[in-house]
Design goal:
Radius of gyration: 11 Å
Largest sheet: 4 strands, mixed
Shape: globular
Structural class: alpha+beta
Oligomer: single chain
Strand order of the largest sheet: 1-2-4-3
Length: 76
């Protein structure tokens, strides 16, 4: 998937991946896509809730082994 900005949040635990994503999205234009890479298992639930609460669209969630997740979020 194409994206405009990437955030490497590997090794960070809740709430840091969400806080860094929120900051990155604030610097982006509407319609742009943020790619986030995380190793925090709690980030799955966190990014789903974050998207619903903020109105940013969670386009995709991909799980990779071992314990790495990728998120693609469209800025509202």
């Amino acid at each position: 998937m194409e994206y405009n900005k990437e955030l490497d949040a590997r090794g960070l635990n809740c709430p840091l991946p969400i806080l860094k994503a929120k900051k990155a999205l604030a610097e982006m234009s509407s319609g742009e896509v943020l790619h986030v890479i995380s190793t925090d298992p709690g980030s799955i639930r966190d990014f789903q809730a974050f998207s619903k609460q903020t109105g940013n669209e969670l386009l995709a969630l991909e799980e990779h082994e071992p314990s790495e997740w990728e998120y693609f979020i469209r800025c509202k």
